[in-house]
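Whether sequence alone determines local backbone shape is best considered at the level of individual chains. When preparing material for the folding task, we compiled for one chain both its residues and its backbone structure tokens. The sequence in question and its structure tokens are set out directly beneath this paragraph.
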Amino acid sequence: MPTKSVLELANWNEDQELTLLLSLLGKDVSHWQDKTAATQLREMDWVRFLRLTEHHRVVPTVYLQLKTLNHPFIPAELLRNLQAQYHRNTLRMLHLQAEAERLTRLLIAHGIRVLMLKGPALAQQLYGDVSLRTSKDIDLLIAPDDMDEAEHWMKEAGYASKSGEVRVLGSWKWKDHHASYLHPQKRVEIELHWRLHPDGGGEPSFDELWNCRKMGKAAGASRQVPLGSADNRTVMTSCMYTLGSEHQFLYLSAHGARHGWFRLRWLVDIDRLAVCAVDWEALLPMMRRYGGLPAGGQAWALAAALLGTPIPEPMRPASATRQAHRLALSALAFMQASVPAPYPIAHGPSTGRLAPSELLHSRALAEQAEAAPPDGGASVCGTCGEAAMLATSGVTSITEDASNADHSPMSTATRCAPITPAVASSQVMTRNTAAAHQPVSRTYLLSLKEPRHRLWYLISRLFPSTGDSAVFPLPRQLHFLYIPLRPFLWLKRRFSKH
């Protein structure tokens, strides 16, 4: 089934800002100016384009593409905005990378094998540069049996558990997949995984993942120091281990599918992985073995339709099935539903859009109210230096929530009064509410599983989970009671949500 029909059925070709974003995320944009008419660019809602870019967490790629194109109709203020976010994200990623190396050294020094998932390691593996991808936390994968000791050393490193849930019996090893920790001073969040995915689905064992691992050299790592006796075990290489390329695709496709691909960043990862040295012939039986064909076929159908990703020959049958097509359409619906809605008018003429001057003040005033920038801090005025840089460009600067009424993105600036702090605060709340991702349905999640894994998932619901201990704490000696109490605790959580 042709992947083009996915877009045709979803009517995405009618969205010019999204179409522009997709063209910039592809590898070849040399023909971009020829295909895009000047009238289209003049009528482009650059503020909506900016919000789409931020929502999908692809600011670094879009900024570098627009900077290279240097088209006269691209607003200079937009480029300055993206540049500030790009620089801030670079610092954030370098900070996360340094902390990931520190924790990796600590755990390996005490005999705990560690694999890096996503984050700076994935950016280095797929993009060759940590600044070209965003990340909000650090994901580490260890063997389930090492969890207790790893948790001890996480606390020694200054991290505290975010959930505080008690692990019940042994079902946590296959029902859950990670625990979150936060460093109160560094404000770095760590997700310590013992599985790749939740819900006890099929996946390779940690030993299999470890045996196929790749060494991903971090930026700035110039030498490798061999390990010696216990006295010098802390002197280590700055290299970190990541998943092998085949396991990487298996993981990324399942992760994106589980979240409905509501961020294009995950699909760009698939696009970059498509040109890496992957043994696609070996991957196909691996996908069959672990139930990865539905998610893998969906990933290829979406990547080919949205980004023009070339599908490797062994993967084409998986992407051409009716199931892959149906799942791709479901993901497109999730993407569209998760896009932030336009802002209401605060001042100015009734154009249906906010003026740039309002949003400059809105963003500057609201910055203090934001506890943490989304996904690694890629916000506009994150530091005083960046705020000052944007302020010196005048009230015509386009910021995260800016919009315009005319063809020129600067033409409405003088018609609007400054916004008050109260209005700024309410707009931030409006943005956060509008941009909240709606969770995917359970029916969709079950459709990603093959029949045997679907049956195992339903059976697994009968076993206790860490959530049961939060609802009804019991001493460890009485944890066996969570088995008969499971239906009642599940119903209590279910009705509590409503």
Q: What stands out?
A: The beta strands are 115-117, 138-141, 160-161, 178-183, 188-193, 214-217, 239-242. The chain has 25 helices and seven strands.
